[in-house]
């Protein structure tokens, strides 16, 4: 009886020893592989360490994304027939418009107001002057998906539509894949942290810290992809180009000037001559006024001098009587 008890205790001790040795060997193997591997080996190990439940959830999500939403009868839903996208569909929408308007500043202001009133924003704007009379504007608008069509119609009706392109990209599968990878990476980070709490050797702690940093960086990259996808599927992008019409070109078939052209040219020449004559008269007016003043002064002085000379002149002598005249009797 005692022998059996002794044998039982010995077997229990052996099993505990083997279990402890297995744990230590596992830690050493994990540290060695983490040091020699890299970012790719660590991601491969984390993928292999995923539990069966996580794998089944990821596979089922990918299968649903590949199959697409289905109707109640079991057949795939047709967005064209229903008029709206199925629930859960993630779409990135973009559009480019080129519109000819009478006034670029007014049209740009109206476009900004349309986007902001719809709950969107102006992501970028660039306006330049082509020549002395025309302007061009390049505006990037972000609007909610629900207001995308209404804003697009309003912008297209702002003037004469020259070109329009639009696209819609279904990224439902990509969104599901990124979400699944984020869940897997979070579980992997949690397992490495748990191993760090259980590690006793400094070498194991250092190795596990490097592995944790690598997996944390991968998790942050996936979170950035998720945020980018969420932004692009929530707000649609509309690129609007506004420009003013060019000057009216001369109609074809008009070989030479007509009567109206000649009349207009003659009137323009007449007005130009009058303008130049007026400018010449205006420029010579001070000199003419000075000459007129000098002439007036000269006449006044000449009249006074002649008036003074006239009284000083001696009177002519009276004729003397001749001696030969006989005396009166």
Explain briefly what this protein structure is.
The protein is of the alpha+beta class. It has helices at residues 2-36, 39-48, 52-67, 79-82, 104-117, 148-156, 172-198, 202-234, 259-309, and strands spanning 91-100, 121-129, 135-144, 160-170, 235-243. A 5-stranded mixed sheet has the order 2-3-5-1-4.
What are the main properties of this structure?
disordered N terminus, 329 residues, 9 helices
Task: Please give a structural write-up.
The chain is an alpha+beta fold and 329 residues long. The chain has 9 helices and 5 strands; from the N terminus they run ααααβαββαβααβα. It has helices spanning 2-36, 39-48, 52-67, 79-82, 104-117, 148-156, 172-198, 202-234, 259-309, and strands at residues 91-100, 121-129, 135-144, 160-170, 235-243. A 5-stranded mixed beta sheet has the order 2-3-5-1-4. Helix 1 (2-36) packs across helix 8 (202-234), helix 3 (52-67) packs antiparallel against helix 7 and helix 7 packs antiparallel against helix 8. The N and C termini lie far apart (227 Å). The relative contact order is 0.11. The model is unreliable at 1-9 and 28-83 (pLDDT under 50).
- Rounded average pLDDT: 74
**Could you estimate the helical fraction of the residues in percent?**
55-70%
**Helix-strand category:** alpha+beta
Count of runs of 4 or more consecutive helical residues: 9
Question: CA-to-CA gap between the ends?
Answer: 227 Å
Radius of gyration: 52 Å
Low-confidence blocks of residues: 1-9, 28-83
Strand content: 5-15%
Which strand order spans the largest sheet, edge to edge or round the barrel?
A: 2-3-5-1-4
Overall, the morphology is: elongated
> What's the total count of β strands?
5
């Amino acid at each position: 009886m005692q022998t059996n008890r002794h044998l039982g205790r010995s077997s229990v001790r052996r099993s505990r020893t083997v279990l402890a040795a297995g744990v230590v060997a596992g830690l050493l193997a994990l540290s060695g592989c983490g040091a020699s591997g890299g970012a790719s080996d660590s991601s491969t190990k984390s993928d292999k360490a995923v539990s069966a439940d996580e794998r089944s959830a990821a596979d089922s999500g990918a299968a649903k994304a590949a199959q697409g939403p289905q109707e109640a009868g079991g057949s795939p839903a047709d967005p064209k027939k229903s008029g709206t996208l199925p629930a859960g569909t993630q779409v990135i929408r973009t559009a480019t418009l080129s519109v000819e308007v009478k006034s670029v500043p007014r049209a740009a202001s109206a476009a900004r107001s349309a986007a902001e009133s719809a709950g969107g924003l102006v992501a970028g704007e660039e306006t330049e002057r082509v020549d002395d009379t025309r302007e061009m504007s390049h505006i990037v608008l972000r609007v909610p998906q629900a207001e995308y069509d209404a804003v697009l119609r309003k912008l297209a009706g702002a003037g004469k539509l020259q070109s329009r392109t639009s696209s819609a990209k279904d990224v439902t599968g990509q969104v599901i894949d990124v979400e699944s990878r984020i869940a897997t990476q979070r579980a992997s980070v949690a397992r490495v942290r748990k191993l760090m709490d259980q590690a006793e050797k400094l070498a194991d702690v250092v190795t596990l810290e490097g592995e944790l940093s690598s997996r944390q960086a991968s998790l942050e990259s996936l979170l950035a992809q998720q945020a980018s996808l969420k932004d692009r599927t929530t707000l649609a992008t509309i690129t609007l180009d506004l420009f003013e019409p060019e000057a009216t070109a001369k109609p074809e078939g008009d070989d030479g000037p007509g009567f109206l052209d000649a009349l207009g040219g003659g009137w323009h020449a007449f007005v130009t001559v009058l303008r130049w004559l007026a400018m010449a008269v205006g420029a010579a007016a001070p000199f003419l006024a000075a000459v007129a003043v000098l002439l007036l002064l000269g006449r006044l002085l000449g009249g006074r001098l002649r008036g003074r000379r006239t009284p000083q002149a001696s009177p002519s002598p009276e004729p003397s009587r001749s001696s030969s005249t006989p005396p009166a009797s």
